[in-house]
Each structure stands twice: as structure tokens, then as C-alpha cells.
Design brief:
The protein is α+β, with helices and mostly antiparallel strands and 833 residues long. Among the domains are: 111 residues, Substrate Binding Domain Of DNAk, Chain A, domain 1, CATH 2.60.34.10; 120 residues, no CATH class. The protein is built from 19 helices and 40 strands. The strands form twelve sheets. Strands 1, 2, 3, 4, 11 and 12 form a six-stranded mixed β-sheet that branches. Strands 29, 30, 33, 34, 38 and 39 form a six-stranded mixed β-sheet that branches. The chain has a five-stranded mixed β-sheet with strand order 15-14-13-18-19, with helices on both faces. The longest helix has 31 residues. The chain is elongated, with a radius of gyration of 34 Å. It starts with a strand and ends with a strand. About 2% of the residues have low confidence. Pfam families: HSP70 (PF00012). InterPro entries: ATPase_NBD (IPR043129), Heat_shock_70_CS (IPR018181), HSP70_peptide-bd_sf (IPR029047), Hsp_70_fam (IPR013126), Znf_RanBP2 (IPR001876). Belongs to the heat shock protein 70 family. It comes from Streptomyces spinoverrucosus. One of its GO terms (molecular function) is ATP-dependent protein folding chaperone.
Length: 833
């Protein structure tokens, strides 16, 4: 069987857990701590520091320690939330900049990494510690995210998990995961009735409120609310400013002073959760090494929190109102996140709901990870992660998708010794810093043994499901029945032996915002209203059509937010482009069906015109819609060029153009390329223009050199021949600089020709290639023969007559054939019928 790790990837702290013996068990890290700070650093020797070691290093160099990366993951540099988060960061934090593709990069040591890569390093280290403690490999994971994370953030977390070597079996909202832990404990405490539960999740960087209904075999999320930029780190910032104000207004902006003040604020916040006064000593301070001591009272801290407490109270009341629920209807309030230890936060909830309803039975720091482990035990099927595969209901025992063979287990990974970003084993070079990785191999975890509860055999493999001696069932990875004690297989929410209820079930979650499809007029066709429970069944989207024109692809672009009148005012979730090699003409019918899977990913089934039904999974995109559209249009131009002139292209040209097309196709579907997107588009345009000009000028120079005998001077004919050969040599090598130079020289020679001769030679060649209708073709060939006869006789007047005749015929046939490639075409969006 394949073990699945539950991971609470927090803004400030992370926790891992697995389902062992039918119950969620938190896995301590290598230092024996159940909670690991979500921090990475680089020491003075370039070694990676993780967790508490990284936090400790801030005393020496706070600019080399990354914290709170979760606030930036899955976001673009111009995102308003990113700019707010950057303003709130300490000035001595590691530098953050806009990346080449418009997202965000953070410096770790000598390298700038994306938030996905930083999170992958964190997840990789969490995995190593968990495998060392549990003694089994974890090739799958259930990772939690804030309930208000939009699609790009969810995709970024999934991508970080993949990079860390996991197959991410599920992305679960943190309040939902915490409620799983609550549900198990509720059943153990004898609660069997349906319960309305409010999950109040206040972590280090995010705040979520969820309203749920839990009962025997039933688990439903009805309402969501929250703030992605509110958490314990904001409370630290309040105390940090307060301490600075107490320092007589002196400047303490130096890195060491800034770190000491911030660290003192963090300690004071924690201490004030259990005492009325926190004594603060700051020393040494400033250049002269002075000191300062003082006290922070809880009443003062609570005064600083007034505005945040008001915002949290309003969010709770809003969720209750949207759910048509009164405070007295809530039977239990579940506290999640370390910041719920703050007395003022608890007192405010107790004032609203009553002290007896605010639950303290689950450790707020452990609940989310425990719930993620429970979710792993509830999984019965997996979805294929491949973009165009819509196979559903794959058994969790499967190693790969039965439809397309995509692996359903994470790959073995190695750590780059230079930038520390994980990469799949056998990768030749690090994709980030190009370090040679060919000699590195993944290290398998040391497997422990399982003791059989029936016969006592102690050396059963940890992954075994039955005892090797007596065939008694061992830990099957599912939940333990509270009635009969049997540990069930995964995917069950009731005991397979006695039918006992576990007190939790696969969650029916809801969307926080509207999800809609962008139409050609810029408006949004609503696909899923806010509060839509998911996963959903397939649902049709009626009355759609594609106004084709000269379109070469159809783009499906999904937005998340409240604005139906303007797609651009919402948050772009991502899209999918259907490239049509035969193009689109006129109005074409579009049949579309959509669904949300268990991870809130939008899946599509569509049929354009009378074509076949196709399937697609929405690519959650960090690429802007403008860039995606430009990439799709360029991809269509490449398609047209290869369709029209592919047989004339050299192998090197075809290889180069095909490679660029693959990048454009990926970019048009939302896949970031890890480099300047504007630069990629400019380079793609330049490559296509260079190949187009080179092909055209080679053809015209060759025609002139071969057909111009008697009409053009012999030295000019020789120059044309040699220049055409130079162009072809450059094309065979796909040497862009040489192609441009030879093309320019050939164009200079062609421009020096008599326009009447140049036009006549081309017209003759087109007729010889059957490019004209039969009648026109016969006339051109007759004029050709007459011209050749005049050249042989040396009759200049007859030559001029035939050149004029050929010019008239060329004008006549201009509408039948275009010397250059077909007009630029682009992508189109669906429209309402």
C-alpha cells in the first residue's frame, strides 16, 4: 500500500501527520518537535538551514532567512495583496523582486527562487523528517491551504508538492481539515447528532472562518469567510511598532536592532497569552551598545488589537448571516491556529457564542495536520493529474492512471547542492542554477517493522497490510472504528465490520467566490455561483457559439470573483487553448460541459461544431491573459507557416520552429516558462520573421537566377545564385545571424532588378507550379514562350511587349495567390448565441 502524508504547510509553522493505527498521529521533526517553523536560511558557509535553525540564524544575518513565503505563493508581482504583504515585511528581510515572467522571486543565498521553489524545499525537508520518524516512504500527500486561497494559489501549492516528490492526492482547506480532527473526537465523546460547527482558523499569516454541518456519514461546508493577510505576524508587527515608540524615538533601523526588537515582540505576544505582563529587555542596542528594558501589559496589547478584533468579529458575523445561522445555532466553535491562544481572541468568541461552546479539546496547532491525515484515510479514489485526461475514480491502490499512464506516485528527488531546490532523480542539471546533478541519487527512508496484534510477529514490513504469518489484517491506512476498534481500509467513513460511524466523512466543500467563463465581449458567463458545493456533477453551459472569422484556436478563460460585467475586474484562474489546425470559419456551435473536481479544479468537456468531444483540465495559471493571448496568436502563425511551407523548410528550421511552438502552446495555456515572457514572445516573433523572409528571398533569388538568362546581366545572375546558396546554407544550420545577413544581401540584389522583369519571372514560376486557374495559366505560359523566343532572337521590342503582357497577367492573378504567408490569425473566445 502507499502511505499518504498529511501536511499543514503554515505561514509561520508547519506540522505533518499520518494515519497510523486508525488515528491521526503527528510526526515530530528531527529535533523531536511537533511544530516546525516554516523558515529557510543560508549560513555563512552556504549550507541550508531549516526550521528553528533558520530562525536562530536571524541573529547573525536576518537578510538570509526566508519566512512567511506562503503570503506570496501563487501570486504575481503586480497583485495588490503582494504589495501589501511586502509593505508589512521587516526591512531586513531577504530581498524580493519581480521575476522575468511577472511573478515573484525571493533571494535565498546567492539565488533568487520562486515561492513555489522555496515551498518545495520546505516540503522536501518536512517529508525527510516525517519518513525518518515514521520509517516509511511518503510518495503521496494531502496538503492544506487557507479556505480563501484562489485557484492560482492552490495550483502553486500543488506544484510545490510535486517538486518535493509527492503526488498531491488532495488539496484541502485548512478549516475543513481541522474539522475532520474535531469530527473524530466528537464521535469519541459520544456526540452522534448533527452538529453545526464554526471553525475559527487564525494562523500566522491567514484568517479563515468556515460554517459546517457534521453528522453520521455527513460532512458539509456551507459558508466561508476570511482574510489572506491577517494573522499572528500582523500582531507581531503591532508590538514591534509599540516597542519602537517606547525607545524615545531613537533610530534603531540597523539589522541587529531590528531583529532584536522584532524577536522581543514575538516573545511578548506569546508570553501575554499566559500572563498579564511581559518583561522586555533589549540589549545591546545601537552603535554604543546600550540597553533598554520595559514591560508590555496585556491590556496594552489588546488595545493594539482592537481594529483586528473588530475585523474578525465582522467576518464571523458575516459568515453566520450568509449561512442564515444565529450564534445560538452553533453547537461548537473549533479554534485552529496558534494565534487563537491570545485571550482576547477567545474571549471575543466566548462573548458571542458562550464559553461552553468554544472547544479546547483539539490542540489548535495540531488540528489541521491531524485533519489532513484523516482526509488521507477517507480517500477512496484519485483523479488523473494530466491536463487533457478526465479519467475519474481511479482506486487509491493504483500506481498510474489506467487511461494515460500518468504516475500517481511522487518521483524520487535529489537536492541541488548549490541552490537546494529539489529535482527528480537522474536530472542532468539543476533547472535553476545549472549545477550538475547526474551523480546524485535519492536516499530511501529506513523502513521500520510492524508487529502483528494477533500472533506477535514483529518483523512485518511497515507497508504490509496483512501479517506474513497469520494473515491477520495490519494497519490498512484507514480510520479506526470507535465501536469495535477495527482499523479499516482507506476510503471508508463507516466501519466495514460493525457499521460504526467514524464521526467524519469526505467533505462537501463550497466555493468562496463565483467562477465564470470569459466571453468575447469581455463579460463573464457564470459557471459556478459562490457557495457551490464541490465536487460537482457535469453541468451544461447553454447557448454558446464561436465566431470563427480567421481564428486558429478557441480559448477557455476562467475568472474568480463577483464581477460578471467585466472579466478583467476579477482574479484570473487560468485557461485552456484548443488549437485548430484547420482553422475556424464563420459561426461554429460550441457544446460545453463543466464540473469541479475534489480540488476545486475546473474540468471541461467540449465539442466545436460537428467535431469530436474533447476533455481538458483547467490549467491554473500565473500567466497574464494578455501574454497568453499573444502566445496563442503567435502559435497560430507558426502553425500556418509550417502548414504552407513546411515541406520547403530544412530539418534544422523545422526542429527550431517546433521547439518554439511547444513553448508558445504551453504559454498560451498558462504554463510559466521561468524566463522573461516578453523576451520569449519577442524571440518567437523574430525567429518566425527570420524564417519567413529567408524562405521568401531564397525562392525569389533562385527564380531570378534560373529564369533570368538573357534578361539579366550574367554577373548579376551569378551573384543571385551565390546569395541564394548562402541563404540556404544558413537555413540548413538554422544560424539566425547568418540568415539575416544573407537575406539582406539577397533583398538588395532583388531590389536592383527591373520591376517588370522581377514580376514577370515570378508570374511565370507560379504558372509553372499550377498556382493559377487553367485559363490564366495557359496565357502566362504562352507569354513565357513568346518572351523566351524574343530573347533568343535578341528582339528587345518583342521582349518589352511580353513583359508588359506578363505584368497585366500578374495583376489579373494577384487575387489567386499571395506571395507571402496567410494573414495573421488568432484565438477567439466563446460568445453567447
Amino acid at each position: 500500500m502507499h502511505r499518504t502524508l498529511g501536511i499543514d504547510l503554515g505561514t509561520t509553522n508547519s506540522v505533518t501527520a499520518w494515519l497510523h493505527g486508525g488515528a491521526p498521529v503527528v510526526l515530530p521533526n528531527r529535533h523531536g518537535d511537533k511544530v516546525t517553523p516554516s523558515a529557510l536560511g543560508i549560513d555563512s558557509h552556504g549550507a541550508l538551514l531549516f526550521g528553528q535553525e533558520a530562525l536562530n540564524w536571524r541573529v547573525a544575518d536576518s537578510s538570509s532567512v526566508i519566512t512567511e513565503v506562503k503570503r506570496l505563493i501563487g501570486r504575481r508581482w503586480d497583485d495588490e495583496l503582494v504589495q501589501q504583504a511586502l509593505k508589512a515585511r521587516p526591512h531586513d528581510a531577504p530581498p524580493v523582486r519581480a521575476s522575468a515572467d511577472g511573478s515573484v522571486e525571493i533571494r535565498l543565498g546567492e539565488h533568487y527562487l520562486s515561492p513555489v521553489q522555496v515551498s518545495a524545499i520546505l516540503l522536501r525537508r518536512l517529508r525527510e523528517d516525517a519518513e525518518s520518524t515514521a520509517g516509511v516512504p511518503f510518495r503521496r500527500a494531502v496538503i492544506t491551504v487557507p479556505a480563501h486561497f484562489a485557484e492560482p494559489q492552490r495550483h502553486a501549492v500543488r506544484e510545490a508538492g510535486r517538486l518535493a516528490g509527492f503526488h498531491v492526492a488532495r488539496i484541502v482547506e485548512e478549516p475543513t481539515a481541522a474539522a475532520h480532527a474535531f469530527g473524530v473526537r466528537t464521535r469519541e465523546n459520544g456526540t452522534t447528532d448533527y452538529a453545526t460547527v464554526l471553525v475559527f482558523d487564525l494562523g500566522g499569516g491567514t484568517f479563515d472562518v468556515s460554517l459546517l454541518t457534521i453528522g453520521p456519514g455527513y460532512f458539509s461546508v456551507s459558508e466561508l469567510g476570511g482574510d489572506n493577510l491577517l494573522g499572528g505576524s500582523d500582531f507581531d508587527a503591532l508590538l514591534d511598532r509599540h516597542l519602537r515608540e517606547q525607545l524615545d524615538g531613537r533610530d534603531h533601523s540597523g539589522e541587529l536592532d531590528a531583529f532584536r526588537i522584532r524577536a522581543a515582540a514575538e516573545r511578548a505576544k506569546i508570553e501575554l497569552s499566559s500572563r498579564d505582563v511581559s518583561e522586555v529587555i533589549l540589549a545591546p542596542l545601537g552603535r554604543q551598545g546600550g540597553s533598554w528594558s520595559g514591560a508590555v501589559r496585556r491590556t496594552v496589547f489588546e488595545g493594539l488589537l482592537t481594529e483586528h478584533l473588530r475585523r474578525m468579529r465582522e467576518t464571523v458575523e458575516s459568515v453566520l448571516k450568509e449561512g442564515d445561522t444565529l450564534p445560538e445555532d452553533v453547537q461548537r466553535v473549533l479554534l485552529v491556529g496558534g494565534s487563537t491562544f491570545i485571550p482576547a481572541v477567545r474571549h471575543d468568541l466566548e462573548d458571542l457564542f458562550g464559553k461552553e461552546r468554544v472547544a479546547h479539546t483539539v490542540d489548535p496547532m495540531m488540528a489541521v495536520a491531524q485533519g489532513a491525515a484523516v482526509e488521507a484515510g477517507l480517500l477512496s479514489t484519485l483523479d488523473c493529474p494530466a491536463e487533457t485526461c478526465t479519467v475519474e475514480g481511479i482506486p487509491v491502490t493504483a500506481d498510474a492512471c489506467p487511461g494515460c499512464a500518468t504516475p500517481l506516485l511522487g518521483t524520487a528527488t535529489v537536492d541541488c547542492p548549490t541552490c537546494h531546490v529539489p529535482a527528480p532523480e537522474l536530472t542532468a542539471a539543476c533547472p535553476v542554477c545549472a549545477t550538475d546533478l547526474s551523480g546524485l541519487r535519492a536516499t530511501a527512508p529506513t523502513a521500520t517493522r510492524t508487529e502483528c496484534p494477533e500472533c506477535g510477529r514483529a518483523d512485518n514490513p511497515a507497508s504490509a497490510t496483512v501479517c506474513l504469518d497469520c494473515d491477520a489484517p495490519l494497519d490498512a491506512g484507514g480510520l479506526k472504528c470507535p465501536d469495535c476498534g477495527m482499523v479499516n481500509a482507506t476510503g471508508l467513513s463507516a466501519c466495514s465490520l460493525c457499521g460504526g460511524d467514524f464521526g467524519t466523512a469526505p467533505a462537501e466543500q463550497v466555493t468562496a467566490q463565483r467562477l465564470g467563463l470569459e466571453l468575447a465581449d469581455g463579460t463573464v458567463e457564470l459557471l459556478f455561483p459562490s457557495g457551490t458545493p464541490y465536487p460537482t456533477e457535469w453541468r451544461p453551459v447553454d447557448d454558446l457559439v464561436v465566431h470563427g472569422g480567421n481564428g486558429r484556436s478557441v480559448r477557455f478563460q476562467v475568472w474568480e470573483g463577483p464581477h460578471l460585467g467585466s472579466a478583467q475586474r476579477n482574479e484570473f484562474c487560468g485557461g485552456f487553448a484548443d488549437h485548430r489546425t484547420d482553422g475556424l470559419r464563420g459561426d461554429v456551435s460550441l457544446d460545453l460541459q463543466v464540473r469541479l473536481d475534489s480540488d476545486r479544479t475546473v474540468e471541461l468537456k467540449y465539442r466545436i461544431g460537428s467535431g469530436d468531444w474533447r476533455g481538458a483540465r483547467l490549467r491554473r495559471s500565473m500567466v497574464s491573459t494578455t501574454v497568453g493571448r499573444k502566445a496563442a496568436e503567435l502559435h497560430d502563425r507558426y502553425t500556418d507557416f509550417l502548414r504552407n511551407w513546411g515541406q520547403e523548410a530544412t530539418p534544422a528550421e523545422r526542429d527550431a520552429l517546433t521547439e518554439v511552438m511547444a513553448d508558445l502552446a504551453a504559454l498560451s495555456q498558462g504554463e510559466a516558462m521561468g524566463r522573461s515572457l516578453d523576451g520569449l514572445l519577442d524571440s518567437a516573433r523574430d525567429t518566425l520573421e527570420t524564417c519567413t523572409r529567408a524562405r521568401s528571398v531564397f525562392a525569389r533569388a533562385t527564380i531570378a537566377a534560373r529564369g533570368g538568362r538573357g534578361l539579366l546581366p550574367p554577373p548579376l545572375l551569378e551573384d543571385l545564385r551565390k546569395t541564394a546558396e548562402a541563404v540556404m546554407d544558413a537555413r540548413r544550420a538554422m544560424n539566425a545571424d547568418a540568415m539575416r545577413a544573407a537575406t539582406e544581401r539577397a533583398e538588395e540584389l532583388l531590389s536592383s532588378l527591373d520591376p517588370a522583369v522581377r514580376s514577370s519571372l515570378l508570374t511565370i514560376r507560379l504558372a509553372e507550379q499550377d498556382a493559377y486557374p487553367a485559363t490564366l495559366r495557359r496565357e502566362v505560359l504562352a507569354a513565357r514562350d513568346a518572351l523566351r523566343s524574343a530573347v533568343e532572337r535578341g528582339d528587345q521590342a518583342a521582349q518589352d511587349t511580353q513583359l508588359v503582357r506578363l505584368g497585366r497577367l500578374a495583376e489579373q492573378g494577384r487575387g489567386e495567390f499571395a506571395e507571402v504567408s496567410t494573414p495573421t490569425t488568432g484565438s477567439v473566445l466563446p460568445s453567447k448565441r
